[in-house]
Design brief:
This protein is an alpha/beta fold. It contains 12 helices and 13 strands. Helix 2 packs antiparallel against helix 9 and helix 6 runs parallel beside helix 7. The longest helix is centred in the last third of the chain and has 28 residues. It binds pyridoxal-5'-phosphate.
Length: 352
């Protein structure tokens, strides 16, 4: 591109590079470790086989949104589907932020918020969590109201810290600010403090959910925004017409109509993470400079004096985790993967 034709806002940006090297064990992206049950997989294949791929997909992803609404006991008119919740973050920011409008994040948090916000030329106000990664509720409210924040976005429970904030406190934030609140509940299937069932009661709230984590469907790129009907209509207006392809819509419909199986999978992930957490806790008791953060997600977050070194060592052992915001983030894998991760950490600290 001719230099004079490149806008400032993308000059300093880099291509998003997820972990691409091949590792034996991938605990870096918070995906589910569970394969789909065979019966559901067969149903998926047969549904996909019946799709007319020469036709455009349903622009409203109606059947898929209905399945999502039914799964969580919501009204379908309050649900909008996106090409991953990532796309919905982009749609929301483009729809609700004018150039120069202020948006707030609460660090450390999901990096994509700042990315999409800067693409639409918002002014980024970055608040900080406290030393235990708790959101300072009064500080957030005060800043939102004093700095004329148009949009506040954060994850609960938080990626990468794994820390959750109780529903009461979230409610208090929503009611106290003049901002749009985008509440990213990507990990809320693993915890019980969701505001999904009251999304319709707050006219400044948009909740994001995804099929990428608890449902083990990161590959189909399917996420949902839940809000009042009026807000949902605005999002429908602002999104690109065929944002969710036919195959993803069909997959979404199938998995979301198997509530019992999905709930069983989620319970299994929760139980595995709890066991993994216990063992990690034991390890941290024997090692100085390693602290496990209390959390409620399908991953563990560690504060480590030698975070960078540990991260690099694990790579040499064929294990990929995430090193972000100075923290180590380790997705709960299957039993074997967790055991090997712990064994590698024990070797690193030579305490095993
Ligand atoms: C993984 C993740 C997402 C992205 O979800 P997709 O639906 O896969 O785009 C959104 N928010 C947070 C906090 C996440 O960790």
């Amino acid at each position: 591109m001719r230099l004079e034709l490149i806008p400032e806002k993308i000059k300093s940006m880099d291509v998003y590079t997820p972990v691409e090297e091949k590792f034996e064990i991938h605990l870096d992206a918070n995906e589910s470790f569970l394969p789909l049950p065979d019966s559901i997989k067969e149903e998926l294949i047969s549904e996909i086989g019946a799709i007319k791929l020469n036709r455009y997909p349903d622009a409203t992803a109606n059947i898929c949104c209905r399945a999502f609404a039914e799964f969580y006991g919501l009204r379908p008119e309050t649900v909008v589907a996106g090409n991953g919740s990532d796309e919905l973050i982009s749609v929301i920011m483009n729809a609700f932020l004018n150039k120069g409008d202020s948006f707030a994040t609460i660090a450390p948090d999901f990096s994509m918020y700042a990315f999409y916000g800067s693409l639409c030329e918002g002014r980024h106000v970055e608040l900080q969590k406290d030393e235990d990664f708790k959101i300072l509720v009064d500080n957030v409210i005060e800043t939102c109201n004093n700095e004329n924040i148009r949009l506040l976005i954060f994850s609960n429970p938080c990626n990468p810290t794994s820390v959750g904030l109780d529903a009461d406190e979230i409610r208090y934030i929503i009611k106290s600010v003049g901002s749009i609140v985008v509440l990213d509940e990507a990990y809320m299937d693993f915890w019980d403090q969701s505001l999904l069932n009251e999304a319709e009661q707050h006219d400044n709230l948009i909740i994001l959910r995804t099929c990428s984590k608890a449902f083990g469907m990161a590959g189909i790129r399917l996420g949902f925004a839940v809000s009042t009907r009026e807000t949902a209509r605005l999002l429908m207006t602002a999104k690109s017409p065929y944002n969710v392809d036919s195959i993803s819509q069909s997959c979404g419909k199938v998995i979301l109509s198997h509530k019992a199986e999905m709930q069983a999978a989620i319970n299994e992930i929760i139980a595995s993470t709890a066991a993994f957490r216990c063992e990690m806790k034991e390890l941290t008791k024997r090692v100085r400079g390693l602290e496990l953060i209390d959390g409620c997600t399908n991953f563990l977050t560690l504060r480590a004096r030698e975070a960078q070194e540990i991260f690099s060592y694990l790579k040499t052992q064929g294990i990929s985790i995430r090193y972000t915001s100075g923290l180590l983030r380790i997705t709960c894998g299957n039993e074997e993967e967790n055991r090997r991760l712990l064994a590698a950490l024990n070797r690193y600290f030579a305490v095993g």
